[in-house]
Amino acid sequence: MAITEQHPFIAQELFDALAAGTPIAPLTDSYPDMSIDDAYQISLAFLHIRKAKNGEKVVGKKIGVTSKPVQDMLGVFQPDFGFLTDAMHVTDGKVHVDCHIAPMAEAEIAFKLKTGLKGPGVTGQDVLDATDYVQPCFEIVDSRIKDWKIKIQDTVADNASCGVFVLGEQKADPKSLDMASLEVIVEKNGEEISRGVGSSVQGAPENAVAWLANTLGEYGIPFEAGEIILSGSLVPLNPAVRGDRMTMSIEGFGGCEVEFV
Predict the structure, then answer these.
(1) Which of these, 106, 118, 205, 252, could form a disulfide with 231 (CB 3.0-4.6 Å)?
(2) Quick check: 199 and 235 in contact, CB under 8 A?
(3) 36 occurs within a structural domain
(4) pLDDT < 70 stretches in the chain
(5) What is the DSSP string of 4-39?
(6) How many folded domains does the chain comprise?
């Protein structure tokens, strides 16, 4: 059977892993001929199942594996991309670890769009012009692939290893900030664990968002007005267990907090 014919079965395998909280073997071991295009088609099928069975609605998109610390940590050396749904938005800051397999937190900047964008040809300035405001954000990534043994095809198929996300209360006009020089400090249980700067993601967060717009544009997928776009982690991923509390702060901008329960 050609791998294109197996896309729906692989998507169902990922959905079952998500629902059961039980990881599966790396897809690239089971399907060594899988291309990134195959992976994206599987991601779309995975999303379709989530929408059909869980009633989830798309509220945005995400880019991941954008910074060198994250790439080095995962051994994946190009960005991934996926979808955000309403079910992924944690509004009270409490992440239930029982709903995840191997959660890890990353600090990043979320863009809220006021107008749509569609690649190719989108620039960082286009992103700033289309943005209503930005917010500090924790994304809790979680791989359905056992032990995070992923290649780029694995994470793209697995919706960019997205778990859930938490938005900070502060909102700012990105044109009022030097996005590349923003510095984030992340603390875990009261102790600093990492620092990062906006330039670590494709030179500036808006450039990462532009890359995502252009990459999805190749598949005919636009950014819609009102969507939330996560621009990628500014720091290395940090694993979390029940009882952990993490905070991120960006001087002159704001912060975000997440508690693992």
Answers:
(1) 205
(2) no
(3) no
(4) 1, 66-67, 69-71, 73-74, 76-77
(5) HHHHHHHHHHHHHHHHHT--B--HHHH-TT--HHHH
(6) 1
Length, in residues, of the chain? 261
Burial (Cβ within 10 Å: 0-12, 13-18, ≥19) of residue 188: middle
Specify whether the CB–CB gap between 215 and 105 falls below 8 A: no
Residue-range definition of the domain harbouring residue 97: 58-260
3-9 CB contacts, 8 Å cutoff, 24+ apart: 3/31, 3/33, 3/34, 3/38, 4/38, 4/41, 6/31, 7/38, 7/41, 7/42, 7/45, 8/45
CA 27 – CA 9 distance, rounded (Å): 12
| Tokens representing residue 256 in the block | 């975000």
CATH of the domain at 100: 3.90.850.10
Pairing outcome for strands 254-260 and 162-167: unpaired
Residue 97 falls inside a structural domain: yes
Give the residue from 52, 41, 36, 55 showing the smallest Cα distance to 8: 41
Question: Is 37 within a domain?
Answer: no
Name the one residue in this structure whose structure tokens are 């088609």.
41
**Rounded to two decimals, what is the model's pTM?**
0.93
Q: What is the 8-class DSSP label of residue 114?
A: S
